[in-house]
Amino acid sequence: MTSIFELRKLAGSYLSPDEVEKVTRAYEFSAKAHAGQHRKSGEPYIHHPLEVARVLADMHMDYQTLAAAILHDVIEDTPTLKTEIQRKFGKGVADLVDGVSKLTQIKFSTFAEAQAHNFRKMLMAMSNDIRVILVKLADRLHNMRTLGALPPEKRRRIARETLEIYAPIAQRLGINNIRLELEELGFATLYPMRHRILTEQVIKARGHRKEVITKIRNSLKRRMRQEKMPVQIAGREKHLYGIYQKMHRKALSFTEVYDVYAFRIIVDSADACYRALGIVHNLYKPVPGKFKDYIAIPKSNGYQSLHTVLFGPFGVHIEVQIRTREMNDVAEAGIAAHWLYKEGGTHSRSRSRSGTHKLAREWLRNIMEMQTVAGNPEEFLEHVKVDLFPESVYLFTPKGKIIELPRSATTVDFAYAIHTDVGNTCVGARVDRRLTPLGTPLTTGQTVEIITAPGARPNPAWLNFAVTAKARSNIRHYLKNLQIGEALALGKRLLNRQLEIHAGSLDEIDSKQMAKVLKDYQLKHQDELLIEVGLGNRMAPIVARELIGLAASKNVGKKSNAKHAIPLTIKGSEGMVINFPKCCLPIPGDPILGFVTAGRGIVVHHQSCPNVTEFRNQPDKWVNVEWESNIEGEFTTNIRIDLTNQRGVLATIATAISDQDANIVHVTMKERDDRYTSIKFVIEVRDRVHLAGVMRRIRGIKHVSRISRR
C-alpha cells in the first residue's frame, strides 16, 4: 500500500521540489476532506486516490495530474466545490478533477443510459484536456485491483464495462501496460473458471517451453553478434486474455495458440530495425503473408514496430517484433510517453511523442464530431464501441495519403473518413482505377478515389454495409432529419383526417387553443406536435379530440353525424414514416391495416397477417388506410415455390420472373427430402395484378408442384 512518503520519493525522482510540495498539499487537503470515510474493504478512503496517483507517477505524469488524481473524488464524495479546489490548487487541477468526476446528481432510468451519459461526459472532458482519461484509467485500474470487497453482481458489471470500454480506450491510446492489466483483471473477474483453467495450463506448459525459448534466444543473439548489431532480445509471454480471445475468435485449442514463441528485439534506430529484420529472415525462413510494417505505416495509436512470423527450430513458429527503444516506450506508454521524459529527450523522441499525442487528439476530435450528430448518449456509446475495435486496413488516396479503416470497411466508409461532405455526396468510387460499387469491402494497399455529385444524398441502404462509427453516425443523422420532414407531413395528414370527423381542420383551430394544447404537451411549436403525431409518439385521435374539445363552441355540431374518418391513402413514397413489415410484405391491391408505432410512424400490415391479432386489443392505435388508386413504384413481397429436384429448374424460374418484368431481391432454398425442394423468392412487383401474372407464369413450369405467398 502506497504512503505519501513513497509517492513523494517517486515524484521527486522527476519533479521539482516545489512541484512535489504541491502534490503533498493536495494529499493533505484530500485526506482532510475524506476523513472518516472508508472503502468497502474497510481501509481509509484516502488510500484509493494515493494508489491512483502512484500509477500516474510511474508514468512520470506532471504534478497537476498527480494532484488531480489525489483530489479526483472530493467533488463527488465530499461537500467540497470546484471553486475551492481552483482557489487552492489552480484552474488546471480543478478542471481535471471536474472532468473525472461522475454525473451523480442526475438520475437515469437504466444503467445503460447512466453509463452512456457518464462516458460521453468523460470524452467531452478529454477533448479539453487529454490527461482526464489518464486519471480515469488509473482510477479504474486501482478499482479493478480491489474489486474483491464488492458483491459478485457488481464485480461482474464493472469487469464487463472495463473489458468493453476502458481496456479498448487504453489500447486506442497506446497505453499497453495499463491495457494488459485491465484485461487480465477483467477476465479473472468475469470468467473466473476459464481464467483458472488457462492459468493452470500456462504453468504446466511453461516448463516444457523454457529450453526451447533459451535456444531460440541464444541463436538470435549469436547471429546479431556476428553481424555486429547491438540489440536487446527478450521473450514475450502471451497474456491470458489474449490467449483466451484468440482461442475464442479462431476456434483454436490452447496448444495451437500457446505453441507460438514470441520475441521482442530492441535496436538503436529505425534503419537498424530493417537490418535486424534481414538478419532474422536469414536465420529462419519467414512465413509468407505474415510480415507487417508498422514503422512505415504506424497504427492509429502511434504504435510502430516490424512484425514477422518465422519457421523456427523444432517445428515451432516464432513471432518477432523489432523496434527502437523510442518505439518501445511509445508502445508501452502510448500518449503517456508525451510526459514520460521531463527533460533531456532527443529530438526524434520529442517528435515521436508529439506525433502520438497528435494522433490521440485527432481521434478525440472525430469522437466529438460523432457526439454532435448522435441522437442520444446510448447511440453515441454504440458508435464509440465500434470505433474502439478496429482490425485495420490501410488504404491510399489518389495523392498518396494513407487512410486507416477497420477491416471490412467499404468505399462509403472511406468517403466519410476523408470528410463528412464527401461521404454525404458520394455516388461511386474507383478502386485501383476500376469503377466499384459503394458497398465493396476494401483491402490493404488499394488506392481509392471517391466520385461525388452536388445533389447526391446518403442512402438508407448504406447502413447495411457501412462499418465505421463516423459513417454510420452521419448517415443516421441525415436520415433522422429526413424522417422529421416526412413525419411533419404525415402528422398533418393524420390530424386533419381526425379533425374532419367533426367538420374541422388544422387551419381552423384558433391559435390560443393550439397554444394551450402545446403547453399541456410541453411543446414549443405546432410543427413539434405534428412531428410527434407523425412519428407515432402521440395519437392523432386523442390530439384531435383535445383540440376539438377546446373549440367545441365554434365547431362541434356542424357535422356531428360523422362517424368514420376518411381513410389515409398510402402512396408508397412517404419515406421512413410509412413502413411495410417483413412479416407480411403487403403490396398494392392487398387489404391493409395501419398500426401507429412510436418512433416509426405507421406500420402497414396485410389484414390476414398473423401479427395483426396481437394488436387487436389496442384499437386506438389503428389507422384506417387504403392504397392510392393510381399508385406507382415497386413493392417487395415474397413467394414460396415447392418443386421437384431437377437440374436447371432454379434458372428456369429466375428467367420466368425476369420475363414478367419483376426483380429478384433474395433467394433461399431448403431441401425437404431427396425429391422435393422449397424455394423462397423475395421479389419486387408493382401491385397484386403484377404478382398474379408472375405466379401464373411460374405455375406453368413443369416441375413446380405448388406456389403461394409467404
Summarize the structure.
The chain has 5 domains: 4-190, Hypothetical protein af1432, CATH 1.10.3210; 199-340, Beta Polymerase, domain 2; 390-467, Ubiquitin-like (UB roll) (Roll), CATH 3.10.20.30; 477-627, no CATH class; 635-709, ACT domain (Alpha-Beta Plaits, 2-Layer Sandwich). It is of the alpha+beta class.
Which topology of the largest domain does CATH recognise?
Hypothetical protein af1432
CATH class categorisation of the largest domain? Mainly Alpha
Mean pLDDT: 80
Instruction: Summarize the main sheet.
Output: 6 strands, mixed
**Low-confidence parts:** 102-109, 340-353, 550-564
Number of strands: 21
- The total tally of domains equals 5
First-to-last CA distance: 68 Å
Question: Could you say which overall geometry the principal axes of the C-alpha atoms support?
Answer: globular
Report the helical percentage: 40-55%
- Decide which structural class fits the backbone: alpha+beta
Proportion in β-strands: 15-25%
